[in-house]
Amino acid sequence: MINSMLPLPGLSAVSGKSVVAKFDGGLLSSDGGVLMLREIEQRLRVADRLAGCIEDPRAPDQITHTLADIIRFRLLMIAAGYEDGNDANGLRIDPIFKMAHDLAPSDRELCSQSTISRLENLPDARALLRMGRAMIDLYCESFRQVPKRITLDIDDTFDAAHGGQQLRLFNAYYDDYGFQPIVVFDGEGRFITTVLRPAKRPGGKEIRAFLRRLLRAIRTNWPNTQILLRADSHYCCPEVLDWCRANGLDYILGVAPTTTLRRHIEGLEASTKVRFEAAPKDGKARRFKEFFDGAASWSRVERIIARVEVGAEGPDTRSHGEVRVKWSGSSVHQ
Question: How many C-beta atoms lie closer than 10 Å to residue 334's C-beta?
Fold first, then answer.
């Protein structure tokens, strides 16, 4: 489609060259990279997988935009940097986004913000669980052969909310309103799954329930793969420790320092400081110590490995639990 606006007249010449402004560029877009993302999405079928997890209550003969098309549009928007659903109202006529949906630039418009909002409020808890399992299946299918062992790096992160979104909470540590989703990657940095949740630290029962669903989905694909769990100290709680042992998971968890635990490494801190001060030009002095101890709430003691590092800024002590670790605290089961 060609814009019929007339040229802009009366512009002054520059360096002896005339300047002419016209508006006949047709339908333009600044998001050419979306077409590459389209190829990836078509290969992985992410939108189709997620759409298959949701029951569509609409009358089939009244549907213009399928669930897969709506999800695909939203995925491509987010990937291109358009996080706000309101951006759909402008992008629905974008020729590149239309081409990513197998439409010509002059074909019908894509879905609007209101359609996207209805979709985002459509899935119930069971549908969300199915969608989570579909993403884990996609991760497992990315391997050419079943791995003998994988590492699960699990952590929660803060996601600031810019508006009055449901479930947002004020987090004093980050001094902002937002969410605190749990995110899981493998040891090679590949994304596995995530869960959106309020902006507060997860408790032991919540973490255990999340891990149970995660393990069930992975075991469905890989029943014999060994799994190592790595996480920070607030995941080192009785519910998680007992669950990992009961289900045959190895684990390396941070251990929060306590007065009891610090007694084990006071001597090591002092000797490491002396070693650094004797030869500061050699750089930081680093030493390790392992011992068995545990919190009163744990069902048994754990093997803990403390790392003491002393440099010009002073000592830095961290700990991890039974397999290998540092003194933010940790526990690893072999």
Answer: 8
